[in-house]
Amino acid sequence: MTNLASRHKDEIWRRVAIVTPYLWLLVFFLAPFAIILKISLADPVIAQPPFTPTFDKQGGLSVSVDNFRFLLTDKLYAITYLRSVLMAGATTVFCLSLGFAMAYGIARSKPSTRNLLLLLIVLPFWISFLLRVYAWMGLMNTYGVINNVLMWLGAIDKPVRLMYTDFAVFVGMVYSYLPFMILPLYASLERMDMNLIEAAQDLGASRARAFWDITWPLARPGVIAGCLLVFIPAMGEYVIPYLLGGPESLLIGRVLFDEFLVNRDWPLASAVAIVLLLLLVVPIALLQRYRVRDQETAA
Amino acid sequence: MNRQSRFIMSMLVFGYSFLFVPLILVVVYSFNDSSIATIWGGFSTRWYGELFRNEQILSAAYLSLRIAITSATAATVLGTMAGLVLARFGRFKGRTLFSGMITAPMVMPEVITGLSLLLLFVTLQQLTGWPGQRGFSTIAIAHTTFSMAYVAIIVQSRLIAMDESLEEAAMDLGGKPLQVVFDITLPLIAPAMIAGWLLSFTLSLDDLVIASFVSGPGSSTLPMYIFSKVKLGVSPDINALATLIIVVVSLGVAIAWIVARKSTKA
Questions:
Q1: Residue B18 lies in a domain
Q2: How far is CA A190 from CA A183, B3, B215, in A?
Q3: Do B231 and A242 touch (CB under 8 A)?
Q4: What homologous superfamily is domain A74-264 in, according to CATH?
Q5: Interface touch B78/A232, C-beta < 8 Å
Q6: Is A22 on the interface with B (CB under 8 A)?
Q7: For residue B131, is the peptide bond before it cis, meaning its omega torsion is within 30 degrees of 0?
């Protein structure tokens, strides 16, 4: 084979390596979003599939923004979006406080213990998410473990209602997303040079001052990545509000799921998804930017 | 111990108990003889027996395993290509879009991914007649799409951390680029590919929301079956199933940890 022919063959392989995953993602990831947008502009009808075509029989364009108008004027949807933001926000803040202390403790422990502690943080990832949420159902039941222990301790006389409340959803969210917060925090805290803090304290800085002036800025990439990794999925969460929340604890992920699979209003569900996506565009773009920057510093 | 380290210590104790007490309790209650899952009625292993006689669970588990193996393998092939492209191919037309499409599926809320893929399959069926029935193939495609992102990231980070000089040396010695990829690069990133496969496999076995959207009537994966059951409340045979999963995963992770520790010491 001549050198030219072999170079040509390599060029073909290079193209194959780029084009195969590229095409896959275009078809199965990007194209579906165009379809969601298209259907969100249709009207629901009782048919298969249950929405009006974008072009009518005469070939004229038939789109309506009724679904979006409905979402913006309907109070229930506004409240549901707001509740989702608040729930995801509260989860993020609590995960950050607990996660920061834990990540700090792990990063400062002896190397041998550190690996074991990290392993225990990763372990839940490999155990079914659904079953981990399910574990809380037995704990928070009216006659579940928490109530039994509290009554045995004499803290309460009769069982308190824990299950099917917003509090239960909050606990379930923190439980499920805590590892997503700890890992990026640990990654930035571990790189930190402890001598910096000692130096600051030697120079007369208080412990609080040393924390806010040194630890916090150095940990910031981990804080931002961790918060985004918790906030974004928590916004669309379906399983936790369904299993632990009551019928009145409406969150947008659950509403979208029910609107689509129970009410079969595909156009409205698509519009709900588009609005959710718009709310998440900024956080997702931020995460993408951090990832790129992280690679550049690693390279 | 000063005040600060006492605080950190108590947070660690609280955090780890928070993470593990619920799992330990599920294991304990799986040996509960009472059929009311929250009341202790003596030790028994009868729920394990019922688990293995439940044909619905077994067929759901078999479907889930087939989907997980198929999608993890496809995701490893596609994701390795994507990771190689991102780490080694430099700039090309459409790179920004490519790298965006790699990250986005990992953080996209599951309800949106599920909805969008179902709408795609419905549209494709209208236009081409495929897929005639939703089930194994549609779920496997959906899982491949989000898992390949994880494989790509793992392979890419491994390649970035790895010295390019080995590949360069092979090229200088006359190796053709394709030959270098197969003889040098792939063996070096094999651990990353294995890790990616395992992660994809787990993600696929774990997924409920996306599978619920893209599956058709009659094809229930294991998480879909579990969900339909626990919707109604705590159930003792699900405790037994959860215990089996917890034990298998913990053993696997413990073995991996011991092997990794031995190999770093040696």
A1: no
A2: 10, 22, 43
A3: yes
A4: MetI-like (1.10.3720.10)
A5: no
A6: yes
A7: yes
Angle CA B104–A27–B202, to nearest 5: 55
Instruction: Give the CATH number, domain containing residue B135.
Output: 1.10.3720.10
Q: What is the tens place of the pLDDT at every residue in B120-179?
A: 999 899 888 888 888 899 999 999 999 999 999 999 989 988 878 888 888 888 888 778
Q: Is A290 on the interface with B (CB under 8 A)?
A: no
Alpha helices in B89-221 (DSSP H): 95-107, 110-128, 136-161, 165-172, 177-180, 186-206, 209-214
Q: What is the pLDDT of residue B99?
A: 87
Q: How many domains does chain B have?
A: 1
What's the predicted TM-score (pTM) here? 0.90
B245 and A128 Cβ atoms separated by less than 8 Å: yes
In a 13 Å sphere around the CA of B251, the CA atoms on its Cβ side amount to 6
The mean pLDDT values, 10 residues at a time, for chain A of 299 residues are 66 88 94 91 79 70 82 88 95 96 92 89 88 90 83 86 91 95 92 83 85 88 92 92 87 89 88 92 84 65
Residue B178 domain-assigned (yes or no): yes
Residue B13 lies in a domain: no
Grade residue B111 by pLDDT with cuts at 50, 70 and 90.
very high
Of the candidates B26, B82, B213, which has its C-beta nearest A138's C-beta? B26
Gap from A180 CA to chain B (nearest CA, Å): 11
In-domain check, residue B35: no
Cβ–Cβ gap A139/B22 under 8 Å: yes
Domain boundaries, chain A: 74-264
Domain carrying residue B195: 59-234
Nearest CA in chain B to A236: B109
Q: How far is the C-alpha of A6 from the C-alpha of B211, rounded, in Å?
A: 44
The chain-wide mean pLDDT, for chain B, equals 89
